[in-house]
Amino acid sequence: MKRFIRNLLYLWVFGLWQFTHAEGFLSRAEKNELDTKVGINILSYTHATHLAVSANSSGPAVAFYYEGKNIFSNHIFYGSNASVGSSPSNINHAYHLVGMNNLTTYRPRGGTNLDIDLTLRLGYDVLRREYDTPFALSLGIRMLTNSTLSSLSPTFPQLTSFYANIEASGLIALQPKLDFEYFIAFSPLLNASVNVPKTDNILEGRRLKITEGYGISLALGTRYYVSNKAYFFAQIIASYTHWGQSSTGRITTAPTTTEQVILPNVSTDVYYPASHTTQAGIRIGYGF
Question: 3-57, pLDDT tens digit by residue?
């Protein structure tokens, strides 16, 4: 991985030189066309709560990735990207939802993380040449959902967040068949909530609001063209997402529960503590 990062930095320096010395490149600055990527993310994933007794979940993650971009001759573009993934999770003997330990004698040791990440954007190519687009700015709306599922849990909270994305990106031609690309985004939180659903063991669901948070994401990589439009790509990707503490809600277990470890007819106040998620890894795929 360190060698890969070092090589990308070398390509970046070389790309700056090529920015003013580019000749003989293919015409790849699409006009009124769709640029599409499909690929796979291979990540190291950690979700941690900010408590003295932290309820952390971590493990390798795999996600399927899609990106589409409609580019117009007047430098304006719109597009979207989406990823859907999961990971086996090592859970640190505590539930992410504070207070849920009061409803059961069981302490989780493992589970599964499920994540859906969707962004819609509108942008402008600030710098565009016939063969690349070195600098673009865009604004977007991002939706992120996260669930950690563990066996014998009284309920399965789902964290859903909406963000305003502020993005910078670029595509720099290095050689006739090789491009360097980058993407960086800052995402202040617009709205977030934790849905605590009603189940056979929980009499009534709750929705806990979160009002503070942000995210940062980065991608650096290269494209290798096999034709004027088609290419393979590889990227280093990383992200950090932070949430503040949620509001508090009261939940009650049913008089008769489906599992012996879940205590019947018990009420407790629950909330989602301040937390963060970190992801780092690679993205590989095909574009056309």
Answer: 655 555 555 445 444 444 445 555 554 445 789 999 999 999 888 877 655 567 7
> 119 and 141 in contact (C-beta within 8 Å)?
yes
Residues 135 and 3 in one domain: no
Instruction: Classify 8 in phi/psi space as left (phi over 0), alpha (psi -120 to 50) or beta.
Output: alpha
Q: Which tens digits make up the pLDDT trace of 155-164? A: 888 999 999 9
Q: Which domain holds residue 17?
A: 1-31
The structural domain count of the chain equals: 2
Burial 183-195 (b: 16+ CB within 10 A, else e): bebebebeebbbb
Tell me the β-bridge partners of 81.
67, 119
- 248: domain CATH number is 2.40.128.100
Q: Are residues 2 and 132 in the same domain?
A: no
pTM of the model: 0.83
DSSP secondary structure string, 8-30?
HHHHHHHHHHHHTT--S------
Cα dihedral 86→191→100→150 (10° resolution): -10
Q: Is residue 20 located within the same domain as residue 62?
A: no
Map tokens 């670029």 to a residue.
170
Q: Does 201 score more than 50 pLDDT?
A: yes
Name the residue among 232, 284, 221 with its Cα closest to residue 9. Answer: 221
